[in-house]
Design goal:
By secondary structure, the chain is an alpha+beta fold. The protein contains two helices and four strands, in the order ββαββα. It is elongated, with a radius of gyration of 13 Å. Bound molecules: zinc ion.
């Protein structure tokens, strides 16, 4: 199974790992609360895992226009 990182705003793929290559703590997932894990991580039917993060472009945009973060998909 693979772990795929995508931006949760623009859906840009940010990289993927075969999960056996990277222990969970290296993915930065161990510090998430169970609620956050549910929101950020989704398990696909083929066994892959999708992790929704924010890409550099979107995080810069949100820094410049913080009101956009109130919208669920501001850049679409
Ligand atoms: Zn983005």
């Amino acid at each position: 199974m693979a772990v795929n990182y995508v931006c949760r705003h623009c859906r840009m793929p940010l990289g993927s790992f075969e999960s056996w290559q990277v222990p969970e703590y290296r993915l930065g997932l161990h510090f998430l609360t169970p609620d956050e894990r549910k929101r950020i991580i989704s398990y696909n039917s083929n066994g892959d895992v999708t992790v929704r993060v924010i890409c550099e472009y979107c995080s810069q945009t949100l820094d410049q226009y913080p009101e956009l973060s109130l919208l669920s998909n501001p850049l679409q």
